[in-house]
Amino acid sequence: MRILIIEDHLPLAQALKHHFNDQGHAVTMVHDGEAGVQFLTQEQFDLCILDINLPFLTGLEILSSSRDSGVNTPVIILTAQDSTHHRIEGLDAGADDYLAKPFEMAELDARVRAVLRRRPTHNPEQLVIGPLAIDYTHRQVIHKGQTIGLAKKEFAAFECLAESSGRTVSKSNLMNYVYGVGEDVSETTLEVLVSRLRKKLSQYGVQINMVRGLGYFLRADR
User: How is 100-141 classified by DSSP, letter by letter?
Assistant: First the structure.
């Protein structure tokens, strides 16, 4: 899953990034409103964690602008303002949920799960690719009832390629999906990751093919 964090309090932003990275998600992190609205309206994310008090543009302004532009990315607002009035403001602006600071990461995780369950555009619980099934709930890949051993980044790469339904995924898009936009990751690192994943999938009749100069696509034997 690709998550956008728009938060100007750097310790909290870093804590959120590490928390979601540890779960195997790709995180893009920005710290002001102008960058936030640009990323939210021009990139594709599965979830946005949005602070209210930001430099240049407030979270509510970002939210209103993105919803007016047709962006339907699920958004959870984080704020120190926990009055009923502020909650109503956030929800009316298009937020899917509202979480007051300080909060426990476990509660944020629960709200993320609830928001994604409510969203009709959210991935189904499973996606079948040849003999393999992606279990989104537990973030694992299943073969005949048994979990196959994929590391978190390998799972994210497989998820990205599988959801592209045989279309070619560019190296840059795959890198952004797995590691997050703007992360300092070399193509060599991505190639090593794909090579490891290719070896693990090949025994199940699932192939990762490379189109030179374009990227990768997934093919499953029937």
Answer: ESS--HHHHHHHHHHHHHH-TTSPPSEEEETTEEEETTTTEE
- H/E stretch holding 196: helix 187-202
Regarding predicted confidence, which is higher, 91 or 182?
A: 91
Give the domain 126-220 fold.
Arc Repressor Mutant, subunit A (1.10.10)
Residue ranges of domains in the chain: 2-118, 126-220
181 three-state secondary structure: coil
Give tens-digit pLDDT for 82-136.
677 777 888 888 899 999 888 999 999 999 988 887 765 445 567 888 889 888 7
Q: CA angle, 169 as apex, 167 and 171 as ends, to 5°?
A: 160
Q: Judge contact between 123 and 136, C-beta under 8 A.
A: yes
Cα gap 124→8, rounded to integer Å? 33
Q: Which token pair is 209? A: 């093919």
User: What is the distance between the alpha carbons of residues 160 and 176, in angstroms, rounded to a whole number?
Assistant: 10
Six token digits for residue 88: 């109503």
Spatial CA neighbour of 40 closest among 8, 83, 81, 70: 70
Q: Which two tokens mark 82?
A: 């926990």
Which CATH number applies to 2-118?
3.40.50.2300
- Find the mean pLDDT for residues 30-38: 94
